[in-house]
Amino acid sequence: MYTIRKGEKADLPRVLELVMELAIYEKAPEQVSNTVAMMEADGFGENPVFGCFVAVKASTNEIIGISIYYYRYSTWKGRRLYLEDIVVTASERGNGAGKLLFDRTMLKCLEDKCTGMMWQVLDWNEPAINFYKKYGADLDSEWINCNLQAEEIKAILGEG
């Protein structure tokens, strides 16, 4: 029903559409400022900082899901694969594409000799939480996410 393959530059318009679909689901579409051009440079440029897999529906040849990942380094554990987003379009959820994408991403973790895989899930996203629980994932509620936007950093450092 679905084929999982490595994402290609030509896939990026659809990849970004799925990212936007996720942002709408997470009630934050106004926070998406990424563009296809940025994704081309960041994923397919001289020094790629992310990779992705796409789920293609066999009957339509349409990309219906994505897994976007990158590598991070833990001083305690070493090289880790970080799953930034896994998205399956609403009409295809529950048909196995998410499992295929997640399984392929886990395999990538092992292929690249990472010590493990990490990701986040919103505390209200029960379908995703239940999906990850099926894998026996450790859902850690102890850590608090922190971030600063580039404009905020510029202001703090007096660069703005």
TrEMBL record:
The protein's name: GNAT family N-acetyltransferase
Residues in N-acetyltransferase domain copies: 2-157
Keyword Transferase on entry: yes
Pfam families: Acetyltransf_1
Top-rank taxon, per record: Bacteria
Keywords: Acyltransferase, Transferase
Organism: Belliella filtrata
PROSITE patterns with a match to the protein in the record: GNAT
